[in-house]
Write a structure and sequence with these properties.
With 188 residues, the protein is an alpha/beta fold. The protein is built from 8 helices and 7 strands.
Length: 188
C-alpha cells in the first residue's frame, strides 16, 4: 500500500506531462510523437511501446496468424512505470486502456478515413487479414471508445490524421496543450 501512495506522490510532482498518442495502426502515431518531442518547449521522451515490447521481450511469443506479438501487459507496465513516474513521456501505442489513469495527463486518439488507412497499411505490406482487422477497428472507432471508457472525458482528444496539414495542426494543438499544462502545473 505504501508503495502505491509514494508512486502517486511521485506522479503529482512531475515536471512534465505524460501524453498518450494512440490510434489504429497507420494513423500516424509515431510520426506525430516524433515531431511533438522535437518541437516541445519542455523535454519529452518518445516511447514507442510496440518497439519496447519487441526489444525488451515483453511478450509471450509471436502470433503467426496475426503477424504480431502477444503482449504481456504486466511486463509492459512494470517496464514503463519508472519511465513514466517523473513525467516527460509520450507513449505511442495502438491501444491505451492498459495505462493506469493516474499516469496520464492527455490521451490523443488519431483517426483516419478507412480508405486512406487501407492504403497506408498496404504500403507497409500488412497481410490482408490484418489490414481488414485494423480497417474494421477504425470504422468502429474501437481505439476512441477504449480511450473514452478508460479516461476522464476532459483528457481525451480525437484528432483527424490524414494529411501533412493534419499532422502539423495536431502537433501544434498538442504543443498549445503543453504550454497550458506548464502554466497550470509548474511554478512561474
Amino acid at each position: 500500500m505504501d508503495t502505491d501512495s509514494s508512486n502517486d506522490d511521485d506522479l503529482q510532482q512531475r515536471n512534465a506531462p505524460v501524453i498518450v498518442i494512440t490510434g489504429t495502426p497507420g494513423t500516424g502515431k509515431s510520426t506525430t510523437a516524433a515531431l511533438l518531442v522535437e518541437q516541445s518547449p519542455i523535454p519529452l521522451k518518445h516511447v514507442n511501446v510496440g518497439d519496447l515490447v519487441k526489444l525488451q521481450g515483453l511478450h509471450e511469443g509471436f502470433d503467426e496468424e496475426w503477424q504480431s506479438y502477444t503482449v504481456d501487459e504486466d511486463k509492459v507496465l512494470d517496464e514503463l512505470e519508472p519511465l513514466v513516474a517523473p513525467g516527460g513521456v509520450v507513449l505511442d501505442w495502438h491501444t491505451c486502456d492498459i495505462f493506469p489513469e493516474r499516469w496520464v495527463d492527455l490521451v490523443v486518439v488519431l483517426r483516419c478515413d478507412h480508405a486512406v488507412l487501407w492504403d497506408r497499411l498496404e504500403k507497409r505490406n500488412y497481410p490482408l487479414k490484418k489490414i481488414q482487422e485494423n480497417n474494421t477497428a477504425e470504422i468502429m472507432q474501437t481505439v476512441l471508445d477504449e480511450a473514452r471508457e478508460s479516461y476522464a472525458a476532459e483528457i481525451v482528444v480525437e484528432l483527424k490524421s490524414e494529411t501533412t496539414e493534419d499532422l502539423e495542426n495536431n502537433v501544434s494543438r498538442i504543443l498549445q496543450w503543453i504550454e497550458a499544462w506548464k502554466r497550470d502545473n509548474l511554478p512561474s
